[in-house]
Amino acid sequence: MGVALFLALSLLFSHYSFEYSIGYSNDYFRALMLVVIGFIASEVSEKIVKNEESLRENENRMRAILAASPVGVALFINRKLHWGNERFYDLVGYEQGSLIGRDSKMFYASDEEYERVGRELYRGIDRSGMAEVETKWIRQDGKIIDCRLRACPLDSKDPSGGLIVTVADISEAKELAAQFQQAQKMEAIGILAGGVAHDFNNLLTIIIGNADLALMKVGKDGPLRKEIEEIRAAGKRAASLTRQLLAFSRKQIIQPEILDLNEILTGIEKMLGRLIGEDIELLMIPGPGLWQVEADPGQ
């Protein structure tokens, strides 16, 4: 473009060389101004085209980034939706673009929660320029999801001009956290049960030992033999229960033995009858051809 201007000016100077000797002519100045204006207009037009192409490229790049975003991104002005990416609409269960102009109050179960979230967001933005809050949103299908909202203003000097909000579904993370807390509780219960079972097992050892000594001193037809045998049997069953508690608390080593299931079930029949209550009838039918199994009797 600079070369074109140089050639045009050279032609003008050679064409109007006579006028230079007696003064500039109006035609010369008019032609010169047209060339200069044309050059400037061409340069400006070329820059505008380049800027427009650059803007289009940046816009397409930004659209691609937002489309691939793993979280929902939306523009809210006065808490009304003005734009949302595909992921945002997937999270709330609506068709793309169907919520433009709708108030975000539609996502909340109560006005109180809607107001609380608004207060926390704007308070955080006033304090640090951005804010984060956790809440629950209601999808179109009625499903409630746990959300983490992060917001920052389009104009840091005027938050009322609109907020860019990212929306992340943290329902699965919340569920995993609850499961982890439950596992910790169960571990604590196991430790407590193990300690109690350990102490109780020591007491049972004394009871069973004394019952064995009493049986040695009482004859086969002694008047108290049956009662002492009941004490010993009850102690054995209680010891079995403590082994189960210790196994539950992972403090008991598994000791498998060859067992007759008929014998095991017959031994706990009375205890089961007391546990299930008098309004339920318990009928135990041994299996004559039942195979033996290798298992820990305390399990």
Would you mind describing this structure in some detail?
With 299 residues, the protein is of the alpha+beta class. Helix content is 58%, strand content 14%. It is rod-shaped and about 150 Å long.
List the helices and strands and how they pair.
Blueprint: H1 2-15, H2 17-22, H3 26-67, E1 72-77, E2 80-84, H4 86-92, H5 111-128, E3 131-138, E4 144-153, E5 163-169, H6 171-217, H7 225-248, E6 257-259, H8 261-267, H9 269-276, E7 293-295
Antiparallel strand pairs: 1-2, 1-5, 3-4, 4-5, 6-7
Helix pairs in contact: 1-3, 6-7
Features:
two-stranded antiparallel sheet; 9 helices; single chain; five-stranded antiparallel beta sheet
Structural class: alpha+beta
Helix/strand order = HHHEEHHEEEHHEHHE
CATH architecture tag of the largest domain: 2-Layer Sandwich
Describe the global form. Answer: rod-shaped
The count of DSSP E runs of length 2 or more, i.e. the number of strands, is: 7
- Helix coverage percent of residues? 55-70%
The CATH homologous superfamily of the largest domain corresponds to: PAS domain
Total of helices: 9
Strand order, sheet with most strands: 2-1-5-4-3
Low-confidence stretches: 3-24
Radius of gyration based on Cα positions: 44 Å
Quote the average pLDDT. 79
User: How is the CATH topology of the largest domain named?
Assistant: Beta-Lactamase
For the record, the CATH class of the largest domain is Alpha Beta
